[in-house]
Amino acid sequence: MNWITNYVRPKINSMLGRRDMPENLWIKDPETGEMVFHKDLESNQFVIPTSGHHMKISAKERLRYFFDDGRYDVIDNPKAPVDPLKFRDEKRYLDRLRDAKAKTGLEDAILSGLGTIEGLPIVATVQDFSFMGGSLGMAAGEAIIRAFETALEKKRPLVLFAASGGARMQEGILSLMQLPRTTVGVDRLKEAGLPYIVVLTNPTTGGVTASYAMLGDVHIAEPGALIGFAGPRVIEQTIREKLPEGFQRAEYLMDHGMVDMVVSRLDMKSTVARLLKLLLKTPAEVAAIEPEILPPPAVAAEARPSA
């Protein structure tokens, strides 16, 4: 115990009326090093105003920004076996899960909700990278399948925000089994004629990219997002060649036909709403145009200048 730090300094601060400053009052831009005020960043959906760099956000924040008025009904995730392999590396898998739940306030890496965007009812599913790297395990797989089933039941389109490091190694083959299971969910949604839009965020890699994250009707990526199966470092070490500039980034993938469009988080809601209305063939709202009032023929003749 440090007597000066734990007793003397708080006593002096209380006497002088000083307040401790929160640690996250300012956030550093990873690209430029610029310090940005936290409140300004939060009001801009955690997009750096000057550089346009997209910071990682939680699943709850994502849904709050995406749905109308930030309101939505949470879709409860189904129960799944916990630690079926009794896995342990440096820590027990159960301990890792407990820490992740305490850190994020989520039961697993998936959060789904029912709500509207620009008045259009949808189902939205978000992977939270803060929960064990957004990895796909049995619980996450069951949650994604529940979202597809809810979309089918409610006859709503589904928008999925992918963010993952891949399959969850602590569940082994049981994790890999979620890849075909979620793919079946995608097929059922498409058979019902309901749109499925995928938004690829930073990062989306591994088995997630090899399954439901690349099976959408439209693929949108956030600017600068890392998207691929294996990471660039692994690829470089395997092929022993230098990769092209911007390889596996959203803009590079759009130029090479892997992504349909790159859209800023600030424009994501309006862009997705417009795409869904096109896919659902929703009639566009046509503004009423006041007809031009022309003068009667007699008046018009009188107003015409004489030759």
Provide tags for this entry:
2-enoyl-CoA Hydratase, Chain A, domain 1; two-stranded antiparallel ribbon; 15% strand; globular; 307 residues; alpha/beta
In words, what does this structure look like?
The protein has helices at 3-16, 38-43, 59-66, 93-104, 138-154, 172-176, 178-191, 232-239, 250-255, 268-279, 297-303; strands at 26-28, 35-37, 73-75, 110-117, 120-127, 158-164, 196-204, 218-221, 261-262. It is an alpha/beta fold. It folds into 2 domains: 15-53, no CATH class; 56-281, 2-enoyl-CoA Hydratase, Chain A, domain 1 (Alpha-Beta Complex). Helix 5 packs parallel to helix 7 (178-191). 33% of the residues are buried.
Quick overview:
This protein has 307 residues and is α/β, with parallel strands linked by helices.
Topology record:
Blueprint: H1 3-16, E1 26-28, E2 35-37, H2 38-43, H3 59-66, E3 73-75, H4 93-104, E4 110-117, E5 120-127, H5 138-154, E6 158-164, H6 172-176, H7 178-191, E7 196-204, E8 218-221, H8 232-239, H9 250-255, E9 261-262, H10 268-279, H11 297-303
Parallel strand pairs: 5-6, 6-7, 7-8, 8-9
Antiparallel strand pairs: 1-2, 3-4, 4-5
What is the structural class? alpha/beta
The overall average pLDDT, rounded, is 88
Number of domains: 2
Note the overall shape.
globular
Distance between the termini: 104 Å
Order of strands in the sheet with the most strands? 3-4-5-6-7-8-9
The helix-strand sequence is HEEHHEHEEHEHHEEHHEHH
The largest β sheet comes out as: 7 strands, mixed
Reading off the top of the CATH hierarchy, the class of the largest domain is best stated as Alpha Beta
CATH topological fold name of the largest domain: 2-enoyl-CoA Hydratase, Chain A, domain 1
β-sheet strand percentage:
15-25%
Radius of gyration: 25 Å
What's the total count of β strands? 9
Given as residue ranges, the uncertain stretches (5+ residues, pLDDT < 50) are: 286-294, 299-303
Helix fraction bin: 25-40%
Tally of DSSP helical segments: 11
The CATH homologous superfamily of the largest domain corresponds to 2-enoyl-CoA Hydratase, Chain A, domain 1
Q: Which architecture of the largest domain would the CATH scheme give at its second level? A: Alpha-Beta Complex
